[in-house]
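Listing S7. Sequence submitted for prediction.
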Amino acid sequence: MKMKLENLVLVLLISVWAYFSFNNWIGSSEFWPVTLAGHWDQWRRAPSLVYKPIFHLILTPLYILNLDSATHLQAAKALFTLIGATSFALIFKILRSRQSLWVSGWIFCILLFSQLGFTQFGKIRSDMLSLFFFLLGYWVLIVREDKGWKVNLTFFIFFELLILLTTPKAFLLALALAMSCWQAKRISVRQLLWSHLSLTLMGLILLMTLAFVVEGSTVVAHFFSWLQIGQNSLGQVSENLSNSKLVHWEINLPVFIAFVLNVVFISKGKVDFSDRILQGTVLFLSLLTLLLIHPLQPFFIATLLSAMFILFLGPQLEKYLFVFPILFFITFILFGLNFRKVYFFKNELQLLAIERIERELSHLKPVRVLDGLGLAPRIQNTLNYVGPNDLVSVEWAEKELMQNRPEFVIFTSRISLLSSESINYLQINYRAVGPGYWIRSDIQETIDLKDLPPAIFLFTLEPTNLIKI
C-alpha cells in the first residue's frame, strides 16, 4: 500500500510538470534539430547530423506523419516531455535505491521545482536525451541485479555509445557512468580502460574520416574556426568571473547543493578507495560546471547534469535530513517569484505565429525561408543555422542571402548576427510584411504579418524582451 501511494504521488508530480513543460516556451536552439531531422541528404552542410545521429534519428519519424509545422513542433515537444518525465522517474527510483523515502522525496522535489529541472528537462536538446540514456544505463547496470561481467560489459558499451552518439558534449555523463560502474564493481579497471580506449580510437577514426569527407581540405580551417569559438566561450567565462556573475542561483542551485554535499562526504565520510575516486571525479565535474556554465543561459547542460550524481552515491543522507526542507523552501520561493516570466511562459504565441506564416506562404511556389533557426519544419528552409560566435555559419547564411536570394526572411536574433552589408542588402532587396518578416521585392503576392509580435523577440532563447512589450 505504501509503495502504491509513493508511486501515485510520483506520477501526479511528474504529470503536473509534464503539462507545464509541454506548453512552455520553445527556446531558439530547439527548432533547428526538429527541422534538420527531415534532411539527412544535407549531412554535408549540417555536420550535427554526423556527430549527433541518435538525437536526430529520434526526431526523424515525425516526418512520416501528415502534420503542419506547428503541430510537428508540438509532437516533438510531446516526445521530449515524455523523455524528461521518464528521466525524472528514473532519478527518483535510483535515489530510492540508495536513500530513505524522505531524503529521496526532498531531493526529487528540489530538482523538480528548480529552474534546471522545471524548465530544462523537457527541452528538445541532445543533452536531455543523453541524460535519459545515462539514467537508463545506471538503472540497468547498477540498480538492478548484477548480470555477470559479459552482460555488464555489453550493456555498458551499448549505453556509452548511445550517450556519446547523441551528443559528444555528454562525455562527462559517459565518464560518470563509467566511474559508477567501476565503483559498483560491475566492470573491472581493465575492462573499463579497454572499452574506452577502443571506443575513443574508433570514434576518432570515424570522425576524422567523416570530417574529411564532409569538409575536404577545409577541415583544418574549420578546426581553427571551432577553436576560435571555444576561445570566445572562455572569454565569456572570464567576463562572468570579473563581473561576479559566476553563480546564477536559480539555474545552479542543484549543482551547488551537489558540490557542497560532495565536499562534506569527502571530508567526513569513511568510504572505500573506489568511492573516494568516484567522489573526487564528481567533485571535479561540479567545480568544472560552476566555471563553465553561462550565468544567464544553461548552454552546457550536459556538464551541469553530470555534477548532480553525487546524490546517487552510497553515503546515507538521513542525518542531514533537516537541511533539505530549508533547501526546498528556497527553491520553491524562487519558483514562485519566477513562475510567470521564466517557469511558465507559454509557447502559444510562437506556434500561432508559425501557423500563420505557413498559411500565408502556402500559395508561394517555390518558397525558401532563411531564418537561421529552422522555425517551420514543414516549409522548405535554406538550412543555414547561425550559431552564436560561429563565424563559419554566419558566412554561409550571408552567402545564401546575397547569392541564392531566398523568397522569405525572418529576422530572428540569429539573422541579426549577419554583417551590416548583409542587413543593408536585405533592406534594399526585400520589403517588410511585418515586424521582422521580409519578402523578396520582386514577389507581388500580398502577405500581411503586421499583427504578429516582432520575430526577434518571439523566436529567442527566453521570452524576456517579449514580456516587456
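Caption to Listing S7: primary sequence and predicted C-alpha cells for the chain studied. The two ends are 52 Å apart (CA to CA). Residues 2-343 form one domain.
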